[in-house]
Sequence to fold (343 residues):
Amino acid sequence: MSRVMRATRLYGPNDLRVEEVGVPELGPHEVLIRVRVDGLCPTGVHAVERGVVWGEPGVGFPGHEFAGDVVAVGPHVEGVGVGDRVVGELLIKCGRCYYCRSGRSNLCRNSRWVGYFSWAEYVKTYDYVTYRIPEGVTYEAAAFTEPLSCCLNAVGVANISPGDDVLVIGSGPMGLLIAQLARWARGARVILSDVLDSRLSHARRLGFKDLVNPLREDVQGRVRELTDGLGASAVIVTVGDTRVQEEALGMVRPGGTVVFFAGVHGVRESPVRVNSNFIHYGEVVVTGAFDKTSEQFYRALKLISIGTVDVEALITHRFPLEEVGRAMEVFRGREGLKIMIYP
Fold:
C-alpha cells in the first residue's frame, strides 16, 4: 500500500486544498480505513468558511460522515479485521469525566479528534468505535450513520410520544432525517416547514403531507389549525438562525419542548428574545441537542439496516474529492439535499 494519500488540508478561511499527505500511522488499538464515501456536513462547511482547524495535524479536514473498508489494524485491535466494511466515530470521548460516566458522553469535557478526517483516501480511528456495516447496507447508506445518530439525540431530548404533533423547521437532510425518526420511530404526526419548495416537494415524496412554506403561509396559524389550537408538542429547529429560534417559541404548546438542533454561525449570531413567563407558566422546555453517544451511533446504523429511515433518498449530488470546492458551492446554493464526496 502507498505511504501517501490524497486529502484536504485547510490553510485559512475558504482555503481548502487537496494535497498529497502521509497515510496515518497506527497505534496498538487503531484501525486504518479506506474511505469509500463521505457526506458533506454543514458543520464542516461552516468551519471551512471560518478557517477553523479541527484536531492535529488538520489533515483530511473536515469530513466525519464516512464509510469504507478496513485495510490495516494495530497489533492489539479487537472486534474488526482487514476486509471488513465499516463506519466509525472520529470524535473520541474520554470515558472518565462526569458526563461520560452518567451516560451523556456527547457532552464529554475532554473529547478529542483522532487527528485525521475523512475527506481523505484513508482515515484512522479506534477499534472500539468502529462498527461493521450489516450485509445489504450500501456504503452510501452507512455513511448516514453519524448524522442520523445526532438526529436520534435530538428526537430523544424532544420527549416525543406516540400521537404527538411535531413541527420540524427546516427540511434539509437533517430535518428530513429527524422527521422520519419522529414519524416512524416515535409514531408522531409531523409538520414540516421550509422556505424552499424543492425541499418540501422532496418531503412530500417521502410521504409527508403537512407542509408549510413561511414565505406564503402563516406557519404559526397553520400549526394551531392542525393541532386544535394547542400548538406543537415539540418544535425542532434545524435552521441556524436566531430569528427562527424566536419564532419557534411561539409555536409550541404549554407543556411542550423546543429543541435547538442547529448551531448559529456568523451574521445570525444574536441574542434570542424569550417570553420567560410563557416558559414558566406553561412549563415549556427549551433545550439544545448536540452530537451523539456511541449507543445512538450503534442504534442509527441498526435503523438504517432495518429500513426504518430512508437515507439514500436524500442523496442528490455526488463529487470526487478533487471537486470538494464545487460540492461546497452546491451546498451554499441549497441546490439539493445530501451531497456525497468520493475520495
Remarks:
- The longest helix spans residues 145-157.
- The domain at 4-144+311-342 is CATH 3.90.180.10 (Quinone Oxidoreductase; Chain A, domain 1).
- The chain has a mean pLDDT of 93.
- The CA atoms of residues 206 and 256 lie 26 Å apart.
